[in-house]
Design goal:
The structure is a homodimer of 298-residue chains. Chain A is mainly α and 298 residues long. The first copy, chain A, folds into four domains: 69 residues, Annexin (Annexin V, domain 1); 71 residues, Annexin (Annexin V, domain 1, Orthogonal Bundle); 76 residues, Orthogonal Bundle (Annexin V, domain 1); 48 residues, Annexin V, domain 1, CATH 1.10.220.10. Chains A and B meet through helix 8, helix 9, helix 10 and helix 12 of A and helix 8, helix 9, helix 10 and helix 12 of B. Chains A, B: This is Annexin D1. Chains A, B: It comes from Citrus sinensis (Sweet orange).
Chain lengths: 298, 298
């Protein structure tokens, strides 16, 4: 659920721009006026405000905000005003300038966005910082962090549902060998995580659990002293979580061929689809999915 | 100069498609007919033929060609019929299945295309092979080859003209140190080549020559036994060659501010612009550029 509240009667975009301009003018800045406008407009509305503002006053709204605001308030207003790709670019750039813990931010942007979103963030990075994201990530990091982060931020993963089970088995074996030997910076381990599609990684992680008994992140034991290991574990968690998969599979394919879906789901995830539904869903959503899967009354 | 000859009177696209379909039908294939059409149509015409063929016969022309033709003839017709991004995807895929020398193909595609073209090749790779280019490159290569090729094929370089001379100096120093120590697989050396913009790499290579006396590829000595070193030298040559730069700089900025261009050109390339023009151009082209640079009569 979104928490954003937009007034029932939204002022015209021209009016919003005039009010913002007014908030910047004169002695001091009218922060309350800025909040009353920007904090109550959705993404499309904010985008339109930025365009109109630039057309009207010949200056990017971001630039005006940058001149007028400071510190945490500036940061929250600016991040909120940026579109998602620009926001990622900004956060990533910030992360390349800070200490190691911000590697987590870079990993999250690289691993939780779709291929298209990550690409758009890289394009926004060019536009804003006049260089590439990977340039700054490479320059900022070194050693194992660089070995993992550079391929993650430059990935353009395949996003289809096709899964190669033979490959999943052989790569689960590679992962298990490397982790058993504590070879956490191994090139093949990183290659698998950085280049395979999320569907393929999911299949590999499921094979891992089936064959070796543990979830992979149980085997990547926590070690508060080892920041790289923490980053690696978080990477596996981000890549291995595909929360929308269940709904996507059932709703897009239920009507096509129920039997094939079930077999395919079990083959890929090594768990029967019905059990996954019961485990991960509840209420009407669960009932709906189970009905689509052929349980209960018609 | 293009060597393609297109007839003065090109048949309609429908007619071309009918003729192609006829060439595939019946006993045997009419290769001469296929050549007489496809070898004499430009890229836009071939693209239109593919679209119309698919709309009319419900099958991709490539698929028909694949079924009807064999060996080298199939390969040349198919590569010619593909659009540039698909062609790159196809060639890259082929390269990932072959011996080491095909790493050269991957490097060329990665380093000689624009950022947009490389991205389009990666997108075409998804569409055709149902996986990512970097997946296959990572899986196919290992050791130093992988260390160099993976970041090259995933690069999305910044393409602006901005150059940071301080950085060029410090990275020229890094390159010289690593090469002097024969550390050809060094992470920083690879990072510089794989992530910096071509303009920045050019500036770095010029600094290298100015400070250390040799062109960098003279220092990356040839060694027929060392395929990796050969690949690295070829990479540097591809990235360091920016043949369109001279024309681009002069024509796009001559009218803006002549003095600034000259200073900037010398700063970046460490060669006066006039001398670069005289060295690299001839005839009317040279005269034109020199005139724009303020030489000779108005």
């Amino acid at each position: 659920m979104s928490t954003l509240t937009v007034p029932a009667q939204v002022p015209s975009v021209t009016e919003d721009c005039e009010q913002l301009r007014k908030a910047f003018e004169g002695w001091g800045t009218n922060e309350q006026l800025i909040i009353s406008i920007l904090a109550h407009r959705n993404a499309a509305q904010r985008k339109l405000i930025r365009q109109t503002y630039a057309d009207t006053y010949g200056e990017d709204l971001l630039k005006s905000l940058d001149k007028e605001l400071t510190n945490d308030f500036e940061r929250v207003v600016m991040l909120w005003t940026l579109d998602p790709a620009e926001r990622d670019a900004f956060l990533a750039n910030e992360a390349t300038k800070r200490w190691t813990s911000s590697n987590q931010v870079l990993m999250e942007i690289a691993c939780t966005r779709s291929s298209k979103q990550l690409l758009e963030a890289r394009q926004a990075y060019h536009a804003r910082f006049k260089k590439s994201l990977e340039e700054d990530v490479g320059y900022h990091t070194n050693g194992d962090f660089r070995k993992l982060l550079l391929p993650l931020v430059t990935a353009y993963r395949y996003e289809g549902d096709e899964v190669n089970i033979t490959l999943a088995k052989s790569e689960a074996k590679i992962l298990h060998e490397k982790i058993s030997n504590k070879a956490y910076n191994d090139e093949d381990l990183i290659r698998i995580l950085a280049t395979r599609s999320k569907a393929q990684i999911n299949a590999t992680l499921n094979q891992y659990k089936n064959v070796y008994g543990n979830d992979i992140d149980q085997d990547l034991e926590a070690d508060p002293k080892d920041e790289y290991l923490d980053l690696l574990r978080a990477t596996v968690q981000c890549l291995g979580t595909d929360e929308g998969a269940l709904t996507r599979v059932v709703t897009t394919r239920a009507e096509v061929d129920l039997k094939v879906i079930k077999d395919e789901y079990q083959r890929r995830n090594s768990v029967p689809l019905d059990r996954a539904v019961v485990k991960d869903t509840s209420g009407d959503y669960e009932k709906m999915l189970l009905a689509l899967l052929g349980h209960g009354d018609a």
